[in-house]
Amino acid sequence: QVQLVESGGGLVQPGGSLRLSCAASGIIFRLNGMVWYRQAPGKQRELVAGITSGGSTTYVDSVKGRFTISRDNTKNTVYLQMNNLKPEDTAVYYCNAGKAPFPRAVSPNKGSWGQGTQVTVSS
């Protein structure tokens, strides 16, 4: 069973940056696509960005040009560099393993999830 530990969230002003990390275990990391999702209060858990085992990336339109997903197979870790953050990016961010094409929204009741990391963008 996959185990996921997200970190790196925090409170940041609009225009600021954060780098999220997600350490995965219980899977053969290098063979899995990895995905970042986010969930704001009262909203669905939605796709933010995904990266395949081969390194191909995909982003939701609202974060293109601002966020970058990357992975380090030697550390079983996936990252999300978030620049030029906006208040609408405020959410709890979660990672998970997945296969492309990555679902645009997922149920938190399906599969295993970590505790997530809170990102708050506010002045």
Features:
mainly beta; 0% helix; four-stranded antiparallel sheet; 123 residues; 49% strand; seven-stranded mixed sheet
In short:
By secondary structure, this protein is mostly beta strands.
- SSE string, helix = H, strand = E? EEEEEEEEEEE
The radius of gyration over CA amounts to: 13 Å
Main beta-sheet annotation = 7 strands, mixed
Distance linking N and C termini: 39 Å
What low-confidence regions span 5 or more consecutive residues with pLDDT below 50?
A: none
Estimate the strand proportion. Answer: over 45%
Helix content bin: under 10%
**Continuous helix count:** 0
Please state the average pLDDT score: 96
Query: Structural class given helices, strands, pairing?
Result: mainly beta
Shape descriptor: globular
- By DSSP, the count of extended strands is 11
Would you write up a description of this structure?
- This protein is an all-beta fold.
- Helices cover 0% and strands 49% of the residues.
- The protein contains no helices and eleven strands.
- The protein has strands at residues 3-7, 10-12, 18-25, 33-39, 45-51, 57-59, 67-72, 77-82, 91-98, 105-106, 117-121.
- The strands form two sheets. Strands 2, 4, 5, 6, 9, 10 and 11 form a seven-stranded mixed sheet that branches.
- Strand 4 (33-39) and strand 5 form a beta hairpin.
- It is globular, with a radius of gyration of 13 Å.
- The protein starts with a strand and ends with a strand.
